[in-house]
């Protein structure tokens, strides 16, 4: 596997592959890779000739109360995993090259409409940080496709909207969420759960599936379904931030006319906030 850390190097590799008519899949990450990330790489490999993964803990998407310095950094193990899976190139940019004049000076990408509720309400400025770094990385790598996990559903839709709004020449592919045997969505945050919490956390996906099944059977009293689910989760010891039935693309509250829905949930268990979602296709 090739390794690159400067913009010039990465552009050389990417250009060489393009000159040889090879397509490029790009998977941006912040490292601390787990099975979920590896499934994104595999998806890229199945669709393109070459796969590039970036590892960069992006300071711009962390709020002042979020611990950027303590974000888990496991570079050696990440590189080993990428080698094993057959990724072609790992790009590990430096903050000084991407933000040469610091975070205050950088132009910002605000993706409108999708960045007011849910995770955005909890983490002001977060999606501007995400969109800005992803656009920069797209401009550096110039991939044909880029794969994002649907586990972070709002992020996935924010990136799709940015690509549409700004006419970017990259196709965004959404990859299904990887799950543990009990249904819990794979996440770096799972490492902070105790064994008891891990089995308890299975209730999140179970509640999503039960609610989705009711909608598929014709139930349209969405507010009532949301309330029931929240009560169920809170009674089981979760601190539910939101359990929201939405239009899958706009993420606005679902109407009975919508055909593609998603239920977004974030629930705290102990010190850990767990995110999950389920898509529902009513066509
Ligand atoms: O999902 C992530 O790990 C990050 O938000 C991303 C897309 C790599 C941007 O820093």
Shape: globular
At the fourth level of CATH, the homologous superfamily of the largest domain is HUPs
- Classification by helices and strands: alpha/beta
% residues in beta strands: 15-25%
Number of DSSP-assigned strands:
9
CATH architecture of the largest domain: 3-Layer(aba) Sandwich
CATH topology of the largest domain: the name is Rossmann fold
| Largest beta-sheet characterization | 6 strands, parallel
CATH class of the largest domain: Alpha Beta
- Uncertain runs with pLDDT below 50, 5 residues or more? none
Question: How do the helices and strands line up, and which of them pair or pack?
Answer:
Blueprint: E1 2-4, H1 7-19, E2 24-29, H2 35-47, E3 50-55, H3 75-85, E4 89-91, H4 95-98, H5 119-122, H6 126-141, E5 145-149, H7 153-165, E6 171-175, H8 195-216, H9 222-235, E7 239-247, E8 260-269, E9 272-281
Helix pairs in contact: 6-7, 8-9
The structure holds pantoate.
Residues 28-30, 58, 61, 130, 133-134, 152, 155 line the site of pantoate (PAF).
